[in-house]
């Protein structure tokens, strides 16, 4: 007669845990030490740079429309009875702004995910 079977032993290695680094980095950010301020400042600069780049793309894109509409061939062209400038402004402008907004949110989330990975969370 044999006794009940025991599950196999499992070895726990404490050297592979990352908890100490995570707590230290989180503490650095909460206490606003030089390292924490540098990490948060890096995230703020990345988000600001992204917003300025995409804002510049929108400003140049929509700022070029009056120049484009100044060309007689484009100003007088019509599609389905609607003049092309009105079609561009009324139909294409909003999906373009939506796409730029969607892209901004996606890239900003990627910046935040990279920050969290760097911070060890």
Characterization of the model:
This protein is mainly alpha-helical. 73% of the residues lie in helices and 3% in strands. The protein is built from five helices and two strands; from the N terminus they run ααααββα. Helix 1 packs across helix 2 (34-63) and helix 2 (34-63) packs antiparallel against helix 5 (84-119). The radius of gyration is 28 Å and the shape is elongated. The relative contact order is 0.11. The model has no long low-confidence stretch (mean pLDDT 79).
List the defining traits of the structure above.
two-stranded antiparallel ribbon; about 120 residues; mainly alpha; about 75% helix
In short:
The chain has about 120 residues and is mostly helical. It contains 5 helices and 2 strands, in the order ααααββα.
Q: Mean pLDDT, rounded to whole units?
A: 79
Distance between the termini: 51 Å
Parts with pLDDT < 50 across at least 5 consecutive residues: none
CA-based gyration radius? 28 Å
- As a percent range, the share of helical residues equals over 70%
Quote the beta fraction.
under 5%
| Biggest sheet strand line-up | 1-2
**Element string (H = helix, E = strand):** HHHHEEH
Class of secondary structure makeup: mainly alpha
């Amino acid at each position: 007669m044999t006794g009940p079977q025991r599950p196999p032993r499992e070895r726990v290695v404490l050297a592979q845990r990352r908890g100490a680094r995570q707590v230290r980095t989180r503490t650095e950010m909460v206490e606003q030490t030089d390292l924490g301020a540098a990490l948060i400042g890096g995230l703020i600069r990345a988000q600001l740079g992204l917003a300025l780049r995409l804002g510049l793309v929108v400003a140049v894109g929509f700022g070029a429309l009056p120049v484009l509409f100044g060309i007689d061939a484009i100003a007088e062209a019509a599609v389905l009875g609607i003049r092309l400038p009105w079609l561009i402004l009324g139909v294409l402008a909003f999906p373009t702004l939506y796409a730029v907004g969607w892209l901004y949110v996606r890239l900003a989330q990627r910046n935040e995910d990279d920050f969290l990975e760097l911070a060890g969370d």
